[in-house]
Amino acid sequence: MKLVTAIVKPHRVEEVKEALQGVGVQGLTISEVRGFGRQRGHTEVYRGAEYQVEFVPKIRLEVLVAEAMVDEVIDAIVAAARSGQVGDGKVFVTSVERVVRIRTGEEDGEAL
Ligand SMILES: Nc1ncnc2c1ncn2[C@@H]1O[C@H](COP(=O)(O)OP(=O)(O)OP(=O)(O)O)[C@@H](O)[C@H]1O
Ligand SMILES: [Mg+2]
Hints:
By secondary structure, the protein is an alpha+beta fold. The chain has one domain: 2-Layer Sandwich (Alpha-Beta Plaits). Helices cover 20% and strands 27% of the residues. Strands 2-3-1-4 form a four-stranded antiparallel β-sheet, with helices on one face. α1 (13-22) packs antiparallel against α2. The radius of gyration is 16 Å and the shape is elongated. Bound molecules: adenosine-5'-triphosphate and magnesium ion. Magnesium ion binds next to loops. The site of adenosine-5'-triphosphate (ATP) has 13 residues, from β3.
């Protein structure tokens, strides 16, 4: 299994959720987070503010998927989250050793 994590703009979350449901994702988690990327939270650098860092509100979205689904899931997230402006976010993938559905005790692929 893989954990696909995406940091996206808050106003894109609904579209991302629908895109993920469209490729068969059954569950996901979101959290309200704050961060900054290369522009340090500024869309333009202005005098005296070059070293100032502003945290901008973002949504972190986490979805556990089978390895075979990863490419499709990334494509769905990127297509739904992209505005073309700075700050559109990041998607990254990590390996997951074990997943258990608490109610049934099912594991791994059966627990997704
Ligand atoms: N290297 C990083 N490590 C952890 N989180 C990051 C990193 N880069 C970006 N993020 C998170 O993603 C959010 C969006 O980043 P952002 O899209 O601005 O990245 P960027 O590399 O500056 O790309 P762009 O030039 O398109 O703006 C940030 O607010 C932060 O929460
Ligand atoms: Mg940026």
